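This section describes the prediction task in plain terms. A model, or a person checking by hand, is given the sequence of a single protein chain and must write out its three-dimensional structure as a string of tokens. No templates, partner chains or ligands are provided. The sample shown here is typical of the held-out split.
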Amino acid sequence: MKVAVLSGSVYGTAEEVARHAERLLKAAGLQAWHNPRASLEEILAFAPEALLVVTSTTGMGELPDNLQPLYHAIRDRFPAWSGLPGGVIALGDSSYETFCGGGELVRELFAELGIREVQDMLRLDASETVNPEADAEPWLAAFVQALNG
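The expected answer:
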């Protein structure tokens, strides 16, 4: 199964988690692809059979600047991804009212596109998480099982 891993990062942490996820998905026998600067055309050329989005949240509860153009391109083009399995890993800081707001925006986009979340969004809290890559591993293992299920 071909899994596109998309990421939006302010300080690079979400990108590290996405890179780690790509390695774990490949180790599990999936054909994972991650490009933090991917265009919609590149993603469509990859022809994903599942989507994983790893994103942090800016202070206003928005998506990071580097994910905004792709987010808007997907909304404008509305690719035929209805029925595809997907998952969201959101990084945030629970001391902010907009905790994991970027992830919630991705979930709304998934709902509009008809992408079905195969498990609940993972919320990684910067005020509690020392190693977000390791903290994402149990969720990613369940995500792989859900995709292979």
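For orientation: The chain has one domain: 2-148.
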